[in-house]
Amino acid sequence: MNYKIIVDSCCDLTEEWKADSHFQIIPLTLQVGNRFITDDENFNQAEYLELVRTTPSCPKTACPSPEAFKKAYDCDAEAVFVVTLSQHLSGTYNSAVLGRSLYLEEKGDKQIAVFSSDSASVGEAKIAFKIRELAEAGKGFEEIVKEVSDFRDHMNTYFVLETLDYLKKNGRLTGLQALFATALNIKPVMGADKGVIIKKDQARGIDKALAKMAKWIAAEAKEAGNKTLAIAHTNCPERAQKVKEQILSLIRVKDVYMVNTAGVSTTYAGDGGIIIAL
């Protein structure tokens, strides 16, 4: 089957996967003050973090247009699979769905599946990798849709950040109980429930919070020996390596990959953030 996998730019792929011709990344737009930055291959994390640090207003993101997705669907692939940020965190999923409707109205029938990842960052990436694995194994379109939906529903996402300010100010923590003041140096261990951000635990100081996150991952892992541990970090490779070692001291996994965050994940995770999917 000739296939294509479309992801938004919150999907933190490795450089190897970015170069794979089966993948296409649709960028979101980042806004810091009066500056607008396309989250594409030209994104410079160091410059961006400095811009965020020196700009009083909170950074924001804007989802791609339905037209951007419609254009991406117009390709030679007989089957197109789309993975987006959780629909509870971004309008990207709705743009992808509307883009599919527009394409089908104009061009006619085509196999296009749009998945809300119920996650972000490496959670999106793991779903995209699963699609490629199944497609390369010769699975049919409907079978891939079914298996990927099940894979997503059994995947867990976790994160610990230096600050939750960017998520809070952009309305991504709606419904959560009040968190401790940052003056107390309380760092929540966060997770996701069907794509909605939840608080799982907390600790004083980020090192203790990361250790607690490792224990949560180990406790909730099922059949970890058959899974890939995916770790994204924002400008903190040493911290990511330490978390990796903590997790692997508790469970055995099939594989591990680590990646530095691109623009959208950098915007919300902030400098020093760690995001994990298993």
UniProtKB/TrEMBL annotation:
Tell me the keywords, alphabetical order. Answer: Lipid-binding
Q: Which InterPro entries match?
A: DegV, DegV_C, DegV_domain_contain
Q: Would I find Ubl conjugation among this entry's keywords? A: no
Recorded GO terms, molecular function? lipid binding
- Return the NCBIfam families for the record: DegV
Full protein name: DegV family protein
What organism is this sequence from?
A: Fusibacillus kribbianus
